[in-house]
Amino acid sequence: MALHTTRTFQTFLKLAFAGVLGASLVAGEAGAEQKQPSPGSAKAIFGSVSLPNQGAAQPFGFYAKGCMSGAVALPVDGPTWQTMRLSRNRRWGNPAMISLLERLSRDAAQYDGWPGLLVGDISQPRGGPMFNGHASHQIGLDADVWLTPMPAHPLSIEERETLPFTTMLQKNAFLTINPNVWTESRARLLMRAASYPQVERIFVNPAIKKKMCDTWTGDRTNLGKLRPIYGHDSHFHIRIKCPPGTTSCKPQAPVPADDGCGKPLAWWFTKEPWAPPKPPKPGTKPVKPREVMVSDLPNACSSVLAAPSVDSIQAATFGPGAPAIAPMAVMPAAASDDALPDIGPVPDDKPSGE
Questions:
Q1: Residue 70 DSSP one-character state
Q2: Are 86 and 61 in contact (CB under 8 A)?
Q3: Has residue 330 got a pLDDT over 70?
Q4: Which of 162, 221, 228, 324 satisfies CB 3.0 to 4.6 Å to 209 for a cystine?
Q5: In Å, how far are 71, 260, 267 from 274, measured between CA atoms?
Q6: Nearest to residue 298, comparing CAs of 246, 344, 237, 225?
Q7: In a 10 Å sphere around its CB, with 0-12 CB exposed, 13-18 middle and 19+ buried, how is residue 197 labelled?
Q8: CA atoms of 120 and 163, how far apart (whole Å)
């Protein structure tokens, strides 16, 4: 991978021992409120794996139901990016995704006035369902990028775990962008990300999508890739296409050819998306959701779990021959209300009084 500089590796050495400290910082009330997965569930099993498997890079299944082989890690630090929430151990992805993030960070810094990316969750070392935070991100082709610009200084371990998210929404106003926070550089960053042909779609808050529809005056060819969804008011979610030749990857239907600024967007500004679920009919027995098991995933995922691990985190980040250091501890814990499923109502986004 490009731009793996000496400074990057030195910073990685300093931060690779951060797991235990990071765990203590993020395991607060939000983490305590999470329901622990059953020991034999896919969430528990994939979440307990700290290193990727040896073998060729390959996504198996769908973005929200699968796993991945041969993952590589985005380095903790790069010239134009820093990774966040290290204790989650979710900076793993298909090489195509890692390459895309590095390129976006460089291009946005060079052309769009964006100083660098703060990168959130990509995927677990072997993908699969996560303990919390996402329904997708399972095959290494999804990544979250904060709408907070990278600071000029390298963030400390504590800052990476505790730095708050910055919402683009105006407080006490339904789906309204805060003009004191939103900037044209953020708009340029989103359209830069959408410009790459391998990017399939980018999930943003409906208010952000509307802002882009109302104000973007440049080329609108890729505006339709910005898809409105619950949450996503402080970060955007990049999803790339199945890499060429990956027959085991299930693609998503392409986005419509228009700019996405019509009826589908208007629906988000009605009461329907935010209405509470209808109560069950009297006498209806509640159905308890069944946890996803490894057997529910593509057959190859069992082999991915059983495959031998790479030698170390640094080998999967910088390539063979990197000096050996202790692996980073894994601490799956929610750090904020952003650690909610990708699809589902976010209470803070609901219209007041509902």
A1: S
A2: no
A3: no
A4: 228
A5: 37, 20, 10
A6: 246
A7: exposed
A8: 12
DSSP-derived letter for residue 91 is B
With vertex at residue 331, the alpha carbon angle to CA 328 and CA 334, rounded to the nearest 5 degrees, is: 140
The alpha helices in 251-297, defined as continuous H runs, are 263-267
Q: Which residues 6+ apart lie within 8 Å of 28 measured at CB?
A: none
What 3-state class would DSSP assign to 304?
A: helix
Amino acid at 351: P
Q: Quick one: pLDDT band at residue 287, thresholds 50, 70, 90?
A: confident
- 298: Cβ–Cβ under 8 A, 6 or more apart, which residues? 60, 61, 65, 66, 67, 248
Tell me the whole-structure pTM to 2 decimals.
Answer: 0.82
**Euclidean distance between CA atoms 233 and 236, whole angstroms:** 8
Sign of the CA dihedral with 124 first, then 119, 212, and 223 last: negative
Q: What is the DSSP string of 310-339?
A: PS-HHHHHH-TTPPP-PPPPP-----STTS
Q: Are 243 and 253 in contact (CB under 8 A)?
A: no
Residue 312: its pLDDT value, please?
87
Q: How far is CA 128 from CA 15, 30, 54, 135, 166, in A?
A: 25, 22, 16, 10, 28
Q: Where are the beta strands (DSSP E) in the chain?
A: 58-62, 65-69, 72-73, 77-78, 81-83, 92-93, 117-119, 142-146, 199-204, 226-228, 235-240
Chain centre to alpha carbon of residue 331: 16
Torsion sign across C-alpha atoms 237, 334, 57, 119 = positive
**Sequence letter at residue 174:** F
What does the CA dihedral 199, 202, 289, 276 come to, rounded to 10 degrees? -160
Q: 73, 92 in Cβ contact below 8 A?
A: yes
pLDDT of residue 277: 87
Residue pLDDT, tens place only, 239-254: 999 999 999 999 999 9
- Three-state DSSP at 183 gives coil
